[in-house]
Amino acid sequence: MSTSAHLEDSLMQQAAPLLKGLFSNALIGIYVIQDGRFVFVNPRLAALFGYTQEALCSGMGPMDLTAPRDQPLAKREIDRRISGDAKASFYSFEGMRKDGSTLDVEVFGVATTYSGRPAIIGMLLDVSERCQAERAVADQLRFIAQLLDTIPSPVFYKDSTGRYLGCNTAFEDYLGKKRTELIGRTVYDISPKDLADQYFAADKRLFDQRGTQTYETNVVYADGTRRDVVFYKATFNDARGELGGLVGVLLDISERKRMEQAIWREANYDALTGLPNRRLFHDRLREEIKRAQRHGTRLAQLFIDLDRFKEINDTLGHDLGDKLLIEAAARIHKVLRASDTVSRLGGDEFVVVLPDMDDKSAAATVAQHIIDQMQMPFELDGKLAYVSASIGIAFYPDDSTEIDTLLSYADQAMYAAKAQGRNGFCHFAQPMQVSAMRRLETGNDLRHAVADKQLVLHYQPIVDLTDNRIVKAEALVRWQHPTRGLLGPDEFIPIAEDIGVIVDIGHWVFEQAMAMAARWHAATDTAQSVQISINMSPRQFMGGKSTEWIDYLRQHGLPASVLAVEITEGLLLDTRPAVIDTLLAFRDAGVQVSIDDFGTGYSAMSYLKKFDIDYLKIDRSFVRDLTTDASDLAIAEAMIVMAHKLGMKVVAEGVETDAQRDLLRSAGCDYAQGYLFSRPLPADAFEILLQTLARDGAETA
Question: Which CATH class for the 274-429 domain?
Answer without folding.
Answer: alpha beta
